[in-house]
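Ex. 9. Protein: Inosose dehydratase.
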Amino acid sequence: MDAAASPTPALDRIRVGSAPDSWGVWFADDPAQVPWRRFLDEVAEAGYAWIELGPYGYLPTDPARLREETARRGLSVSAGTVFSALHRGPAVWDETWEQVSRVASLARDTGARHLVVIPSFWRDDKTAEIVESPELTAEQWHHLAVGTERLAREVRDAYGLTIAVHPHADTHIDTEAHVERFLDATDPSLVNLCLDTGHYAYCGGDSVELIKTYGERIGYLHLKQVDPAVLAGVVEQGTPFGPAVRQGVMCEPPTGVPALEPVLAAAQGLGVDLFAIVEQDMYPCPPDQPLPIARRTRAFLRSCGA
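Predicted structure tokens for Inosose dehydratase:
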């Protein structure tokens, strides 16, 4: 058989989903965002079976109601998401745990097994004002590592969830050097990574190399691509992440980088079941924009074998 005609290998360890983020949802309540019912209707219509909770309070927070709303659309919840500032030390633990408990409880009660943990921004997420140094001190790195391990243990013990820490632009876990420092400082039996292909490329990292080097630490995937032309301007101008998104730095696959086919193949090669959740940052966006993109993205991922 001609190799070009060979069927695409099935990525049978990859479970594809999407998230409110791909519908322009960044906040629990914002008139610029599509209503939650429309998101659920359209994500199912686009062909996805898995979703994330998004910002706490965007989707119904009563687990029975949310289970009913998702089940009748053929959807299941893969994870919840929280933000944390654990580099600030024990003083922020109670505040962190209060937020984590709400999200982890809802995630557990809707059948999810994962909690995605995003480090806090060193810029204000709305004004882009720099509020902290982009570089942590040695003491802050220690607080971050110890605090994350504590969070992983307590989330596991209280809610039966595993955490996946999400390297993210404009946070302290962003570049290859920062991601490797964080992984090397934390217990592999407790702390996994949510590899977001777009954020990692935005910050200069190579997702395939990260999977090859730290494969045992990859517990979850976010699928995203960056427009290299827009990114070049962002880097040159020092544009904050929020305005960069409004400029279209995150783009529809397969038009950007990294190529997702080798990322998915490398993830499949790990031999473990992984969620791969599509997240195309595009806040704010016209309400009719997300569904056609979501349909095309789902078709593209099917063409990759997912």
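Check your answer against this statement. Residues 167 and 173 are 5 Å apart (CA to CA).
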